[in-house]
Design goal:
about 140 residues; mainly alpha; 4 helices
């Protein structure tokens, strides 16, 4: 009885696939080695050129976007300054109106407690004695 050693059917396909894969890689390697352009430069120049062009285009686009953003910032800043100036003038006008109203209608002399804090109260007060015959002194 003789035993024959044969590869199972599952392994035969993998061996052939591995050989095919190795042959394919060798052909690709040979094409790279024997191509003078790839051998001297070492990489795909066309792909690098497209990448450089894409980066330049992105840089230009980003620069345009930055310029637009700067213009918008300047416009917004001018608008904010104008609004602040308008608010300041309105506030100042209100303050002037309040001061004018107080000067006109709320004088110190018309206040209820003015007689307590009148600086000229002693000057306005009657003297302690008007003369020798003062009726208040009797």
């Amino acid at each position: 009885m003789r035993l024959t050693c044969s590869n199972p059917p599952l392994l035969e396909g993998t061996v052939n696939n591995a050989e095919d894969k190795r042959i394919k890689l060798d052909k690709q390697r040979a094409a790279r080695i024997f191509d003078p352009k790839v051998r001297t430069i070492g990489i795909d120049k066309q792909a690098l050129d497209t990448q450089v062009d894409e980066r330049k285009a992105l840089k230009v686009l980003e620069q345009e976007r930055d310029e637009w953003a700067e213009k918008q910032m300047v416009l917004m800043d001018k608008h904010q300054v104008a609004l602040e100036m308008e608010c300041n003038t309105i506030r100042q006008q209100k303050e002037r109106d309040v001061v004018k109203y107080r000067e006109t209608y709320q004088k110190r002399t018309t206040r209820r407690e003015y007689d307590l804090s009148d600086p000229n109260a002693l000057k306005k007060d009657l003297p302690a004695r008007v003369g020798l015959n003062d009726p208040r002194c009797t």
